[in-house]
Every structure is written in C-alpha cells, then in structure tokens.
Predict the 3D structure of the following.
Amino acid sequence: MRLPQGAGDVAAETLMNLFHRKTRNHVRKAQKSGLRVLHSGSLEILRALADLHKRNMEAVGVPPKCWDVFFALRESFEYDEVYRVGALLVFFYNRTAEYFIPGGSAEHRTLQPMNLLIFEAMKEAVRRKLRYWNWCGTALTATGVYQFKKRWGTDDYPYYYYTRIFDERILTFAKETLAHEYPPFYVAPFGSLRNAAA
C-alpha cells in the first residue's frame, strides 16, 4: 500500500480515509479504550511477542516462527533504527515499512489493540517519510487474514518467492526432510524435488 505524505494530524486523517469503515471504527475503539502504545527493544518484550505469535499461529494452523528467528533479529538489527516491537514487529527500511510479526492476546482482542498498533506504526512510517507499507504475502486459504489486510486500503500484487539453488543435492531430499530441517525457511519449491512424492 502506498503511504500518504504529510505530517501530524493531517497524515493521520489521510491514513484513516484510506481504511475501510470497519477498520476506522476498530482503530477509534482502540483509541477510546485507554490502550497505550509503547515500544521497546528488550529481550523480555521480544519473548512476549514470540509467545503471542506462537499462540496466534497455532490457533489458525500456521507454523509459527521459532525463537531463533526472533533472537537473530535482535542480534542483527539496532533497535529503533530498523524495527519496533510491542505485539507487532515492523521493519522500517528503504522507503518501506514491513508488517513482519503480529501477536495479540485473545482475551483482549475486543479492545482492538492490533488495529491501534498498526495505525500507530503507519503514522510512524509516514513521519519517517517512507512511501510504502508492505503487508507481505497471505496464503490463499487465509481468507480472514486477507480481508483484514484488505480493509486498510491495500492494493493486491502477485507475491513471489525467489530461490537460488547452490547445491543440486538439496533437490534429492524429501519435502518432509526439508520442512523438518529448515522449519522457518522456504528452501525450494516442493514440486522441483526429484522425489517429490516421497
């Protein structure tokens, strides 16, 4: 989605006008609920996000990112220069804000905290003069997630994975072996494996 340019209340109002009516209502509900949006790069907060993410992904039958991914992010990036974390991890890089890992507690979902976090992250992206908000890919079967993202004024684009095989032997493994050995990674299209039926 292309982010508006501007500052302060004007940018916030321009953003709100991009959203579907239901999304605007969810953001306003969260704002009125007394929720506060804070950010931190602490290990404790990152662990809390990892736990929320794991519960959320397991609830919808999607493999969660393992702790190693979260830890590697903390080790690889300087906090508040590239990412912010609360119950939402967003990357700010190269004119783009990337919605990377959300996590929310089921018992507080009615307060719409994720909507408020996303809105505040979008305002921060506009403040940083970024041009795009990338929602990343959504599985075709995840219709609820797709609908949620679509209501933020999102444009649809084809989403591709590009891989480069450096060692052809990887194509001799069974897909179950690759999924087990490299759980958070996309290694190669399973259809290109030599024993894809194995």
User: Anything to note?
Assistant: Strands lie at 83-85, 88-93, 96-102, 132-134. Helices lie at 8-18, 21-32, 43-59, 67-76, 113-127, 143-150, 175-181. The domain at 8-150 is CATH 3.40.630.30 (Aminopeptidase).
